[in-house]
Structures are given as C-alpha cells and as structure tokens.
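As promised in the previous annual report, we have extended the structural survey to additional targets. Below is the entry for L-histidine N(Alpha)-methyltransferase.
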Amino acid sequence: MTAVAETVLDAKTEPRPIDEAFLASVLSGLSKRQKTIESKYFYDARGSQLFDAITDLDEYYLTRAETALLKEQSAEIATLIGTGATLVEFGSGSSVKTRILLDALAALRLYVPIDISGEHLDAAAKQVAADFSLPVIPLHADYTSRFTLPHQVSRDRLVGFFPGSTIGNFEPDEAAAFLDRVRSLLGPAARLLVGADLQKDPARLEAAYDDAQGVTAAFNLNLLVRINRELGGDFSLEAFRHKALYNAEEGRVEMHLVSLADQSLSLGGRQIDFTAGETIHTENSYKYSLESFRELAQRGGWRSEAAWTDPEGLFSFHALIAE
Ligand code: TRP
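The corresponding structure token record, generated without further manual editing, is:
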C-alpha cells in the first residue's frame, strides 16, 4: 500500500471525536420522565435539506402564506421603515424572504444576516451584497444566545427581521425573554418585523407537521440518525414513528418520536429504556392569535405598529416598535 492510500484509509477509519455537549444534552434529555431531545440538533446538513423540502410541501402552508404576505405588504412595510435603516436578520439561512423586503426597501444602509451555519451564511451574504449593491456584514452566531453586534453597526435605525414563525419554537416565556434581548440589542427606536403562525383548525395544523410524503417524519427521525452516526447510538429507525399533535390547551403543535415497542438502547455507556407508546418530545410550534401575539410582544417590551394577515387568515406578520 502506498503512503497516500494509507493516509486516506486512516482518515476514513479514525473515529471522529464525539461532540460531548451533544452527547450530554441527549443523555440528559433521555433521562427525563417525558424524554426530550433539544430541537437545535435537527439542523445538520441532511436536516437542513429536509427542512428546505418541508417549506415546499403542499401541507406546509406557512412559507407560502408568509411569502405572499411579504410580497403583498412590502411597499407598506417600506414606508414604515423609511430610508437609511439597517436590517438585522435572526437566522438568515439563504435569505430568500429577505430578498422580497430588499426589493421594496429604499436606500437601506446595511444588512446584517445572523446565522449559526457559517459557510452557508458567507455565501448567502456575498450573493445579497452583489445582487442589491448593498453593504452586508454577516455575523456568525447562535442568535438564541447572548451576543453583540459588530462594532461597525451603528445602533441607529435598526430593524430586526425574524420570519418563519420561528418565534413559535420558543416556550412563551423564552419568546418574551428573547424579544426583550432583541430590543436591547437593537437599541432605542428599533423596529422588529416578525412572522407568527396563527391558531386554526387542528387538522390543518397537524397536516402541516405530518405530511403525506413523510418529509417531516424523516426530518424528525433524522435526530436518531444523527445520534447513531455521531454519538454511536443504536436506535432502530423502524422502532420509532413520527407524531404531530395539536395541544389546544397549550396552543401548540407538538412533535414526538413514538417508541413502537418496549425496548432498551445503549448510549454513552448508559442504558435507556422505552415502553411501547412512550415518546421523545422533540419540538413545539406555538400558534398565536393576533391579540395573543401582541401581548407576547408587549411582555418583551415591544408595541404593535401594524399587523397583516393573509386572506385565509393562516399567518400573521407584525411590525413592532421598541417601547
Ligand atoms: N419554525 C418551523 C415551524 O415551527 C420549524 C418546523 C417546521 C419544524 N416543521 C417542523 C420543527 C417539524 C420540527 C419538526 O413551523
């Protein structure tokens, strides 16, 4: 065997170092009475691909409704914002929805996309800078943690952008705390443009999170695939099933992985037992009314300036002003 071939083989067979924080989080979640896995672990490369596929599904009305709303209302939003503003986006991804706003916003000073995935972020930032001849300063950060804006960003006329109803993936108390942090980050006289999915018929909601093609199921089950690959888990994918249910009392869609049998697994030297029908709770997606969302915003120190909904009343988009 040549030296080169050996090197290649070694690189392949050498076990990757385990992400200890991921392992600790999974072990802690799976030892609770209601087992959980933190939803931030959905988004590896495959998870991000599957999520993009979710946003194209017939059942997943959220992306279509919000995109249509933004198109419909972008002129009015642009009038509210005026000129010389800086747009700060929380979880920018590939900035698809941002482009709708950028098309309409006059004489923006700067765009600051924030995302946890650095590679994706830099490519998207370059593309937006080129397409809109706009200064762009990408910020590689976990926007749910505490961080500061780059020093070049003056805290004048800052406008936050948080589409996708991602606010609904926080517990309401956390959402209020997040909104409060965003307010202090963006400074006085800031605005926040935020999308929030609306409460509606449970059947419609459940279909959006349990599509006929099984894309959302694959997205949820990908957590177990990741644990097997990255943490040396031995989950059998056939032994778990995706489940989405609307919890009317809490006003949220819950995502679970249901164990189809009594079973025991081993992970990180520990044994984890499941009874048949027991679930791992993987995500919540809270749904608001216009009024309950305004109340939430108020708790975070924001006042509602305007709100729009689509003709079917599926989705809402809010312009908030810092109090
Ligand atoms: N923010 C999205 C939502 O709540 C995230 C999402 C869509 C999601 N489908 C999912 C999260 C399925 C977990 C499982 O609509």
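Residues 61-199+288-322 form a domain with the Rossmann fold fold (CATH 3.40.50.150). Residues 61-81 form the longest helix (21 residues). These points will be discussed at the next consortium meeting with the crystallography subgroup.
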